[in-house]
Amino acid sequence: MGFIEMTINFSVESRSSDSPARTGTLELENGMFETPIFMPVGTRATVKSLSPEELKKCGTGILLANTYHLYLRPGADVVAEAGGLHEFMNWSRPILTDSGGFQVFSLSDMNEVTEDGVQFQSHLDGSKHFITPEKSVEIQKKLGADIIMAFDECVSYPADREYVEKSLNRTLRWAERSLKAAEDLQDHQHIFGIVQGGTYPDLRKKSARRTRKLDFPGYAIGGLSVGEENKLMYQMLDVTVPELPSKKPRYLMGVGTPRDLIEGVKRGVDMFDCVLPTRLARHGSLYTSRGRINITNAAFKKDFNPPDKDCSCYVCRNYSSAYLRHLIKRNELYGLRLASYHNLYFFLDLMRKLRYNIRRDTLDDFVESFYSGWAEE
Amino acid sequence: MGFIEMTINFSVESRSSDSPARTGTLELENGMFETPIFMPVGTRATVKSLSPEELKKCGTGILLANTYHLYLRPGADVVAEAGGLHEFMNWSRPILTDSGGFQVFSLSDMNEVTEDGVQFQSHLDGSKHFITPEKSVEIQKKLGADIIMAFDECVSYPADREYVEKSLNRTLRWAERSLKAAEDLQDHQHIFGIVQGGTYPDLRKKSARRTRKLDFPGYAIGGLSVGEENKLMYQMLDVTVPELPSKKPRYLMGVGTPRDLIEGVKRGVDMFDCVLPTRLARHGSLYTSRGRINITNAAFKKDFNPPDKDCSCYVCRNYSSAYLRHLIKRNELYGLRLASYHNLYFFLDLMRKLRYNIRRDTLDDFVESFYSGWAEE
Question: Which residues bind Zn(2+) (chains A, B) (predicted)?
């Protein structure tokens, strides 16, 4: 493949008059979706407890799967022989895979970073692996996602400036190598570059400018929501987003809470992913229009109302807080499933509302009304 | 309520010419179903991992919930205030609750049996409880199932004759007390009596005859599949079933494997329940037309066929053995769910086929063909 296929079919359709917020459409070979969008996380080729039909009912336009986990189990070859991730997991709409970098740095043991790549030990069985940008792209090619990510180093927080700068320079060289390796992708695949730079505004800008020069079809902002304060993350978005091309999709990796999504959208982000809604659900923490509640609280023992009276999801239409409390306190699988469904619905519904209000140019009003009476953190 | 409401709307519709096997229809206020039927077990007001819609798609006509578990958590009052089990768990079709007797004897600590009832300690928190026949009926009235069970003692196996006889006599007195307490049931509720007698043919006969005299709307055969050999269980059915009224439903409690279902049906049993399909599913053990397989075996790593090519369930139509193996090896919730669905479908489909072949009077041929190539035990 050559230059032309490095483009992506993304169009910006409306812009907020008070902020860089915007709506758009990303059209991929396996389907199109409107942005800003939230991508549910299907770590091991499954969004925990939920069926493809349910994910679609929630409004999932694209989901994310983790290269690191799938590379270890069941292995990229198994997925490739199954016909790729879509076939393997029975998901027909678009999929995005991360590069594996984040997990290599956060989950595995004894990783060693060299110019060539990263050596690490599997968190499952201690086996040794060496991942390079080329290897990451090759694995992602086998997995067959619609959007794949360049291999990067995700620096933990806090990190000193010298290390962050050294790391981002290496990540830039890895981005170039990833892009070169991606010349050989499957026809339906596209690769995004990743901006790093820790919490240093000038390094973020530098990383964004130099990554942009490589002319990826889309850009991710990585290394945020790794422990820094929310304000710092929003500041980094403020300096990074303006450096990215306005006509290409922007993806804030691993973020976040409803507040983070709103603040990201206001700063011009188009795509998000996070395990938060499903992970919290499994601990009985449910998002509602009045904030986050813990359904296992004694207060819900005889509460026969739905968890959120303002929610029209399957769970809130059919079940009471008392029933959910009963199930989740006993760790019943169906309770984990209902809570996961509800939280994903909440996140995807929030994105729908954000898109609607950007189009009507009423984003500020909507956000103000959303935050009123909201008690999450 | 008086005598007339102790009847039940059950009609036998066809009989096998070679065996006591029969089909029928049981019509309850919350729905009707054909017999012989298998009841999925929803221990804590949930059939583990599955939705009501999925249970219906599998062909579930009635499900079972456990009085002991629900009495302890969330408590019968919570369920009653929710509007009963149907409302609480969003299940509109019929429900059967057991009496709690089996769990009191098998799960709880330090139970002491007296003429009045059973004292036991909760397996959850050690709290002390005393259950009598009257209390069991009262709890079941609150839970609001369509069919409730008389309180009985389920004797473990092996048990000496003297104890079994003493116990069955007490169970008969408890049956009388249960029946009296049941005069006050909700309009849609019916109570079944339970035959005990261990593995002693004459005691089984005695228990059946004397329970029958009490004129319950239906009869269960309890205390089987508790450790005895299959043959012994089948012998007990051979002597017990003929003692029960031919016009009333017969329910074999807590049974069993596909083979047990077939052998029970051949002996004139109309209803079954068992945790086996869902429990085994969660360990990766799947029923197929060629027998039971363990999907986590290495042989399935790259097997991209469905678990059972002859099965037309949702799982077999959409997923490969390789994917199920991947999910279940990682204990993924969606894997437990798919396996549970598949196994329940298998059991309910087997019952459909048994009914079909009884009606056509081709039961023996069907059973022979089912067993050929079947490798379960």
Answer: 311, 313, 316, 342
